[in-house]
Amino acid sequence: MSQIHVTRRYRFCAAHRLHTDQLSPEENWTAFGKCNNPNGHGHNYVVLVTVTSGVGQDACNLDRLDQVVCEKIVERFDHQDLNGDPALTALTTTGENIVKLIWEILKPELSQGRLHKVGVIETRDNYFEYAGAN
Amino acid sequence: MSQIHVTRRYRFCAAHRLHTDQLSPEENWTAFGKCNNPNGHGHNYVVLVTVTSGVGQDACNLDRLDQVVCEKIVERFDHQDLNGDPALTALTTTGENIVKLIWEILKPELSQGRLHKVGVIETRDNYFEYAGAN
Amino acid sequence: MSQIHVTRRYRFCAAHRLHTDQLSPEENWTAFGKCNNPNGHGHNYVVLVTVTSGVGQDACNLDRLDQVVCEKIVERFDHQDLNGDPALTALTTTGENIVKLIWEILKPELSQGRLHKVGVIETRDNYFEYAGAN
Amino acid sequence: MSQIHVTRRYRFCAAHRLHTDQLSPEENWTAFGKCNNPNGHGHNYVVLVTVTSGVGQDACNLDRLDQVVCEKIVERFDHQDLNGDPALTALTTTGENIVKLIWEILKPELSQGRLHKVGVIETRDNYFEYAGAN
Amino acid sequence: MSQIHVTRRYRFCAAHRLHTDQLSPEENWTAFGKCNNPNGHGHNYVVLVTVTSGVGQDACNLDRLDQVVCEKIVERFDHQDLNGDPALTALTTTGENIVKLIWEILKPELSQGRLHKVGVIETRDNYFEYAGAN
Amino acid sequence: MSQIHVTRRYRFCAAHRLHTDQLSPEENWTAFGKCNNPNGHGHNYVVLVTVTSGVGQDACNLDRLDQVVCEKIVERFDHQDLNGDPALTALTTTGENIVKLIWEILKPELSQGRLHKVGVIETRDNYFEYAGAN
Question: CB-CB: which of C5, C55, C59 is closest to F129?
Fold first, then answer.
């Protein structure tokens, strides 16, 4: 079946540091380079949330989507240190883990099958995308 | 089979107003908020047309594509009020309806299977995409 | 004296039509072309407000700036037909008139000498800038 | 199975000319227009390389990807005339042929199944994308 | 006196090569690096033309500006090799020489004092700007 | 005298926190809001360095400029916490202070009068610019 998709853009600014306790300091440096610098650095993250939509009654309610994403994603991560987030403390704060976490947070908040994919732009040259099971 | 896709970018500037005669004034306001303001507002719409292409004889003729899109889409919608378009008078001029209409206009103008998807950027933060049956 | 300048970006979506009652319909068409189409069209306007700033006590209060621009500019023009704005009814809604009007609205709202220049992006290829007397 | 994809952006500046020895000068002009001008022209090409990634051990090594793309693509094409490239001398240097060539160069350099798709932005309004067999 | 400025964006795609006959091949390489590669490379050039404008009768006629820039700049340089341009054969085709040449071509075509500045974007990271005597 | 200016774009990703020891915690929060969050946040900073240039012998050596900016600015701030920088520990890491610091670092590294202005993009909507005494 043909579907219409709508993508909405959101943003948050956050600090992070690539580091895992499972590696020694030297191994962390080898794995992550300058992204492992002790005091962290940061990014202007862009989050692209794509939902299925339709015409008339099947259109996605974008006000509701904005409310969910702002409350669950933007307010949680904006102007924070991602390494301190409860869901990420045991994980390295790579783009892969961040985009997957955002999918997992948003999915139960939206109607069944509504969430189509999530994208995260970390820097001008780095983009992460994830579409989990529906 | 692997395929090459080419996306061409087009633009039109248009006025519109989200409104449906099936709802009362109050219901229209509840549904569409400021997008329902009586005198309308407008956007710099970007249209992204993606076609299947190939190498050599199978390449899509982009001059022909430009001619079709300019004649059927840009000339029709540019510097117009979308609510006055014959195909949209009975519909709300949402991004969903606009992207679907553009697909339906372009599909019969191109060779069988050539049209792959259509995207419409309405504002910096709003993107609509549609791929109908082929 | 060397000065630091800060530029903040704002947006509004609005309809407009280039037209003046001082010209006949034919003259309006000659002067403004498709921008004179009777039902109007619209744009995603970007407004760039540049203020002088400094370090420490001399820094511009950006929260205050945001409040002023949102209240006086964005709320006034967003999702409206510019031709219906009281300050523009007697004027053609060209980029020149819009950027000058925004300067004149903002200037008395900010401290003496704070406003440095105002820019308006009307379309991808059209940018207007004005710096009035201080 | 759900997968995470990472897209990295690379660039090269190159000259090219659309021309094929299989056509007469007149036919070349008919087919390619000003892109057939004898001394060539050029572009700031952007290359978007999308790979499958994962979390933890399944993450794609982006340093390795950068090394491969810089060595095999950027160093080969940057500040060159594409028509003189050995793989393109017998081909017209269309976006279709370039994006397909980049896929074919990168595929054997990466682990089985790692390369997901390749995109090439030729101009602001022209984008080519290819995902070959894996 | 306060003035309004309008900036219009134009584009051309061209090949070029940094090289001067006044230097030996080795010196050319030392001076220009890979930009001296024998067969040239190319760019998507963006040209930003800024003119003084005003309100009412003092507004700049943008149709006339478009006509001048398209005829004198875009048609001359688009899909060409800049090193073959008569005005540049004796000069190195640096951004500095190109932006200055565009100023000198446009100035006599516009009313006295109308041309305010010219900008040239050569690559994402390189921007040249010139405002000659008026 | 007319001058040509060249602007080069650089980037660094860094963490920071708006905070001054001269204010109480409550006053810091009032002054800086969420930018005062204890663990800091971060940005993808863009630095635009504009130098005077000319033609022939008067052209600015961009390789030398790149070397200076990379060594003195990018290597110093990239993937760091700005609050830990020696020149900023006694200052709040506002855009104003950062753009002024970059000017002061670069000025003595370049020939007399070469540095024209420095710009810093902190977020999509925030731009700081400074031109000190020459």
Answer: C5
